[in-house]
Every structure is written in structure tokens, then in C-alpha cells.
Design brief:
The protein has 150 residues and is mainly beta. It is built from 1 helix and 10 strands, in the order αββββββββββ. The strands form 3 sheets. Strands 3-4-5-8 form a 4-stranded antiparallel sheet, with no helix packed on it. A 4-stranded antiparallel sheet has the order 7-6-9-10, with no helix packed on it. It has a two-stranded antiparallel sheet with strand order 1-2. A hairpin with a 4-residue loop joins strand 4 and strand 5. It starts with a helix and ends with a strand.
Length: 150
């Protein structure tokens, strides 16, 4: 009886491991695209341009920005942030063009992965993305990480 039970447990674990590997498969050429209606779909698109620079600080690491087209950038990296949430602003010089937030796949103290796209209406050459963690106490910006987009 013990051997049958052991066999079933091993079979169950093996089946679940196989399913989780398939669910976690991610084609490296897949990009998540968010349209204006809020729908998310995966498209096989290779980013047009990468500046090949990686940005890091105490809360963000391995952050890259890849240009998808004239107005869309793919932002990827890791963050060690409270409740897996962080925010960003996109600036053109001193003017904030856009604000947003994103999530990682794990909260602090773990380093969670993130990947999101941003659409920028401006065509200037001084665009900058600033990632930051909002203070749980007062909402102030902490650990700002500037990432040039152009």
C-alpha cells in the first residue's frame, strides 16, 4: 500500500512540474504589448534598437530600455521593492509627460522580475524614464533610477 501511495505522489509531482515548465515558457522574442483599450497580447516582435546599457541602484538592477518603434519602449529589469510595486515617470527635460506604475513577480526582500512597455507621444531627444519606489509612509520618491530613452 505504501508503494502505491509513494508512486502516486511521485506521479503527481512529476505531472505538476511538467505543467509548470510549460506555463513558464517564454519565447525570448515575445514582447507584451498594451494597447489603449487595456488589452494585453503577446506579439513576436524583436525590439528595433537597444542602447545596450544596463542601469542599477539599491532597489533596481539589470534595467534595460529597448526601442520597439518611434514611440514605444520595452523596459525590463529586477526590483527589490515593497509589496512588489514601483512607479515611474517619463520626463522631457523638466516636464513630466507621463506617470505610471508596474509590478514585479516577487516582493522584497526577493528580487522580482518586471517587464512593461511605455508609449511616449513626444519625439524629442531628451526623454528620460525615472523608476522609483514610493515611500509607504508618505508616498515620497525613494531610490530613483534615471534611464535615458533617447
Amino acid at each position: 500500500m505504501k508503494s502505491i501511495l509513494s508512486f502516486l505522489v511521485v506521479l503527481f509531482i512529476a505531472c505538476n512540474a511538467s505543467n509548470s515548465n510549460d506555463a513558464g515558457h517564454n519565447d525570448k522574442d515575445s514582447v507584451i504589448i498594451n494597447n489603449n483599450a487595456g488589452d494585453t497580447k503577446a506579439e513576436n516582435k524583436t525590439p528595433v534598437k537597444s542602447n545596450n546599457k544596463v542601469y542599477s541602484n539599491d532597489r533596481f538592477k539589470n534595467v534595460t530600455a529597448q526601442k520597439i518603434n518611434d514611440t514605444t519602449f520595452l523596459i525590463r529589469g529586477k526590483a527589490q521593492v515593497f509589496e512588489a510595486a514601483f512607479s515611474y515617470v517619463i520626463k522631457d527635460g523638466d516636464t513630466e509627460l507621463k506617470q505610471g506604475s508596474a509590478m514585479t513577480d516577487a516582493g522584497a526582500p526577493a528580487w522580482g522580475n518586471f517587464s512593461f512597455t511605455v508609449n511616449i507621444p513626444s519625439q524629442t531627444n531628451s526623454l528620460q524614464l525615472i523608476l522609483f519606489e514610493a515611500s509607504p509612509k508618505d508616498g515620497s520618491r525613494q531610490y530613483e533610477l534615471p534611464v535615458p530613452l533617447r
